[in-house]
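Researcher: Here's a chain I'd like modeled. Treat it as a single chain, no partners, no ligands.
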Amino acid sequence: MKLNKFFPVVIFATSFSVLYVYQQSEIFRLAYLGQKKQAVYTELLDKNTALRYSINKSSSLVRIGARISDTGDFQMPDNYRYVKFIASPGGLKPAQPGASGEGLLARLFSLKREAQAKTINP
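Model: Modeled as a single isolated chain. Structure tokens:
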């Protein structure tokens, strides 16, 4: 084999080998970066779960009830008053007792829209 054919073959083989090694090292580098990002993501997910648990624990009904019962100024009303609001162009206005915009058939066949809630004292 002559020298003018040998050098291009050696240069091509060397270039191919260098590019192959570079490609393999990039694959490993990107795999390590992916593992690092996955570890950060898992850590953030764990922190998120812990924070959600803390929020749920802090805002539970038992804890809120304990805070309300600790304060002496909280008091439930003795009697209940229901107020009905009517939507009008000027905004919401309290309805007059006995004055209703519904007809007789609408009153007979419609469901009541008032919600009534009463406390249970142990």
